[in-house]
């Protein structure tokens, strides 16, 4: 006969085993539920949208979840080029070359909110908050640029004066130009100092980079580039403001400026570089070399080229996806957007339904040659 103490111990032991089994089962179910929940969140997470300006079309919208074009927007203006989006994702700004204005569009519905007159040949757009900065080129002849080494024959016209380009500063909510900053002939790229007080612009016709006060428009500094390379085009600030980089299209290189806008060095690239951007943490610099048909990657400390990928025809501007997993590159002459995996630097898709794409931005606002997170 078993003793009462032994029976009690046996009952307690069996109870503990049962409880442990129940807890283990609950743990397994909880772990399984957590995995399923994680999987569900991965499936349902919205990666955002990309907007592409097409010079022979309107604006196309790419769903970054599927990498497919899902919508067409009529920008209500001829030859869209520069493109920007507000931080809330509600408003698109499109520079219309042929119309001399910008279109302010409702990004969700595609409806035109209004046109704002800018000037001849509006091109580059940067949107910060509810303000748009738009470059335009009164002196641009509208034709293709001369090739390196090609003789330029100019018509004599003693009465013709070269009109400096300008940056129009537009209050988006009011729909009007509030200020203009005078640049050089054929102003191109637009960037901002790290503290937000200065405007840095590239002037391709007179081979200068100029620095201006945003508040007053005053010219603070001129950096000539002819000795190191002609036709400055793209311009980007390092995320921490420690440097600025600008592509020199005819120099086949980019120039590095320090935080005080002094020339530090030049870095050789493939032929005809244009779009340029740092990655989000500032460790790498990406350059779209149009005629080389490559997207090139440089170490932002050593400036050594660490990789490159073959792209398409006349690829100028690009954006990272908001999660930094891919780069979307607008390739004008091959009428496509090339999708590149950032980890492998391999082309993973070509979205081939575009019409001479010029620019591209993502929402939520992301790193790219035309935009930056806010």
Description:
It contains one helix and 28 strands. Strand 20 and strand 21 form a beta hairpin. It has a four-stranded antiparallel β-sheet with strand order 3-2-1-28, with no helix packed on it. Helices cover about 10% and strands about 45% of the residues. With about 375 residues, it is mainly beta. The longest helix is centred in the N-terminal third of the chain and has 41 residues.
Name the features.
about 375 residues, mainly beta, four-stranded antiparallel β-sheet, globular
Query: Overall pLDDT, averaged?
Result: 87
Query: Largest beta sheet, briefly?
Result: 4 strands, antiparallel
H and E string: HEEEEEEEEEEEEEEEEEEEEEEEEEEEE
Radius of gyration: 27 Å
Q: What's the end-to-end separation, in Å?
A: 80 Å
The number of helical elements comes to 1
**Binned strand content:** over 45%
Quaternary structure classification: single chain
**What percentage of residues falls in helices of 4 or more residues?**
10-25%
Total beta-strand segments: 28
The parts where pLDDT drops under 50 for at least 5 residues are: 1-31, 33-42, 142-148, 150-160
Structural class, by secondary structure, is: mainly beta
Shape: globular
Strands ordered across the widest β-sheet: 3-2-1-28
Short description:
Helices cover 11% and strands 45% of the residues. It has one helix at 4-44, and strands spanning 49-54, 59-63, 68-73, 80-85, 91-96, 101-106, 112-117, 122-128, 131-136, 166-171, 176-182, 187-192, 198-203, 208-213, 219-224, 232-237, 243-248, 253-258, 263-268, 273-278, 284-289, 294-299, 305-310, 315-320, 326-331, 336-341, 346-351, 357-363. A hairpin with a 4-residue loop joins strand 25 and strand 26.
